[in-house]
Amino acid sequence: MRPPALRLLPDPLPPGVPGDPGLFGPGSSYWHIGRERILLLGGQAALLLQLAHPLVAAGVAAHSRFQADPLKRLRATLAATLTVTFGDAAQARAAAARVAAVHRRVRGRLVRPTGPFPAGTPYRASDPATALWVHATLVVTALEVFDRFVAPLNQGDREAYYQESKRFAAMFAVTPAMLPATYADFCAYVGDVHARVLAVGPEARAAAGAVLATPRQLPLRLPAALAAPLTAGLLPAPLREAFGLDWGLRAQAHASLTGQLLRAMLPVLPPVARYWPHYLVAARRMAARPAALVLAPPPPRWP
């Protein structure tokens, strides 16, 4: 049985069908960026971005044991994300189906008015608009963590990753018509949601308190003095303030120093420590005898 501090980490994938790349495959931006374990540093920030959406926060408060196990949502999101990203076609479809089955049960109405939503506003986890925001938080945090702690990303890199992310979004109830056409359009959508939709209400604050109180389950077991500034630095100022996160000079200095140390450490780590085991399993699967492909991967972009 795993120690409690490691309960966040999902089990590795089974080998899968030899030669089946699943949704993406070698050379894709999704594999190149998503294989980095350090992306988990954005997990708390992604959760807070999700909770800042009143309809998401209401669903979490009413349909999960968030206070008892505050990282259960992150653990489930991580397991599904890694399986859909690195699994073969059947594994990806099965993971998405499990998430969809859970989401179908999450529905209700807002108890109190929050942000632009009056009391009584209906919500459901399978709503494409809500699913798009949850997807957007994963894209935003993955790109920012990689850019800050692994290697700089230019606009072409970000565009490629976003375009590939549309395949991922389609597995989780986001309809093609909902997806912004380009990365620039996606950034405009994110800015619009921040300006017109996000509002941190009582449900979001209560859940955020539980999330921020569990830094030891983050990778490398970072102490709270380092984990909290990293999370704060990944959020825009209005949300930092709404969630009560410190971003004073000391917090900024801690985040900067931690970032420098992480950037220096990553290049010397062996693959088994640096990359998710899901990626290593997928790489071995692709090195095996090719199988008939169900979903063709995009043209290679990365080595």
Which regions contain 5 or more consecutive residues with pLDDT less than 50? 1-6, 215-221, 291-299
Structural class: mainly alpha
Q: Overall pLDDT, averaged?
A: 87
Domain tally: 1
Tally of helical segments: 14
What is the chains' assembly state? Answer: single chain
Distance from N terminus to C terminus (CA atoms, Å) equals 36 Å
Task: Report the principal-axis shape.
Answer: globular
For the sheet with most strands, the description reads: 2 strands, antiparallel
Widest sheet, order of strands? 1-2
Strand coverage percent: under 5%
Percent helix among the residues?
Answer: 40-55%
Please trace the helix and strand order, writing H or E for each element. Answer: HHHHHEEHHHHHHHHH
**Quick one: how many beta strands?**
2
Rg of Cα set: 19 Å
Task: Describe the protein.
The two termini are 36 Å apart. This protein has helices spanning 29-34, 43-51, 54-63, 72-86, 89-103, 128-149, 155-170, 183-196, 202-212, 224-233, 237-242, 249-265, 271-274, 277-287, and strands at 107-109, 122-124. It is built from 14 helices and two strands. The protein is mainly α and 303 residues long. It has one domain. Helix 2 (43-51) runs antiparallel to helix 9, helix 4 runs antiparallel to helix 5 (89-103) and helix 10 packs across helix 12 (249-265).
